[in-house]
Write a structure and sequence with these properties.
binds zinc ion, elongated, 136 residues, five-stranded antiparallel sheet, 24% helix, alpha+beta, 8 strands
């Protein structure tokens, strides 16, 4: 398992980590298989979405904030319940197909680390594995 760190700069932020994941995958010998991307955190997650129009990410952040306001009526004494909930909504892992050694992402897809309680330094684990070949 490989890992890299991402430094975030605000409380809520989606950071495009597609190139970082690609470069980790480039160090593996996997040609056809799957690439696991995992964050070992409870207030940050990972997701895939459009990386062409930055307004998509702005809309995701704004609407998550409407769904789960920072100042809601929460019990968790640490005061960051919204971050825990938003992270669970995004999820903590992704599995991306690997074809010919490349991430098989769609044309407009990027991989984002979702920071909900920053700024912090976050870890991202990347692990690629090969499929067993289908019998021909
Ligand atoms: Zn907490």
């Amino acid at each position: 398992m490989h890992q890299f760190s991402v430094k975030t700069h605000s409380r809520v932020e989606l950071v495009d980590i597609t190139d970082r994941v690609r470069s980790e995958l480039g160090q593996s010998t996997v040609r056809d298989g799957a690439c696991l991307v995992f964050v070992p955190h409870t207030t940050a997650g990972v997701t895939i979405n459009e990386n062409a129009d930055p307004d998509v990410v702005r809309d995701i952040i704004a609407h998550l904030e409407k769904l789960v306001p920072a100042n809601g009526n929460y019990r968790h004494s640490e005061g960051n319940s919204d971050a825990h909930i938003k992270a669970s909504l995004m999820g903590f892992s992704l599995l991306v197909p690997v074809e010919a050694g490349q991430l098989a992402l769609g044309r407009w897809q990027g991989i984002y680390l979702c920071e909900f309680d920053g700024p912090r330094t976050r870890k991202v684990y990347v692990s690629a594995s090969s499929h067993a070949p289908f019998p021909t």
